[in-house]
UniProtKB/TrEMBL annotation:
The keyword Chloroplast does not apply. Its main location: mitochondrion. Belongs to the TIM14 family. It is found in: Mitochondrion inner membrane. One of its GO terms (cellular component) is PAM complex, Tim23 associated import motor. Residues 51-104 form the J domain. One of its GO terms (biological process) is protein import into mitochondrial matrix. It comes from Monoraphidium neglectum. It is a single-pass membrane protein. Probable component of the PAM complex at least composed of a mitochondrial HSP70 protein, TIMM44 and TIMM14. The complex interacts with the TIMM23 component of the TIM17:23 complex. This is Putative import inner membrane translocase subunit TIM14. Keywords: Membrane, Mitochondrion, Mitochondrion inner membrane, Transmembrane, Transmembrane helix. It comes from the Eukaryota. Component of the PAM complex, a complex required for the translocation of transit peptide-containing proteins from the inner membrane into the mitochondrial matrix in an ATP-dependent manner.
């Protein structure tokens, strides 16, 4: 007599878990691509405005304040004095200079 009850509870539990899995999958697929995946590729030999905007996570036409805010946020997380990479810090600084117009396109330092 208890076998149908146990079987019913097992089926209900499996259905609930399946429903939750489908809902989580739909949420994951609904996220913008920038949250789901990172840019796949290395640095170009010479940095241009496109690459600089990708590094800072901004549009090429971003204003000075947005560029400075993004630079500050990224440098706090990647500063060499805090255990970050000096290469990444140099690239972030170069990206800021290019987007602010302080530096013309040039070859990579590294």
């Amino acid at each position: 007599m208890s076998t149908p009850l146990v079987l019913g509870l097992g089926v209900a539990a499996a259905a609930f878990v399946g429903k939750q899995a489908v809902q989580q999958y739909v949420k994951l697929r609904a996220r913008p691509p920038s949250i789901r995946a990172f840019y796949k590729g290395g640095f170009a030999p010479t940095m241009d405005r496109r690459e600089a905007s990708l590094i800072l996570g901004l549009r090429e036409s971003a204003g000075e304040e947005k560029v400075k805010d993004a630079h500050r946020r990224i440098m706090i997380a990647n500063h060499p004095d805090s255990g970050g990479s000096s290469f990444i810090a140099a690239k972030v600084n170069e990206a800021k200079d290019i987007l602010l117009g302080k530096k013309k396109k040039s070859g990579s330092v590294f």
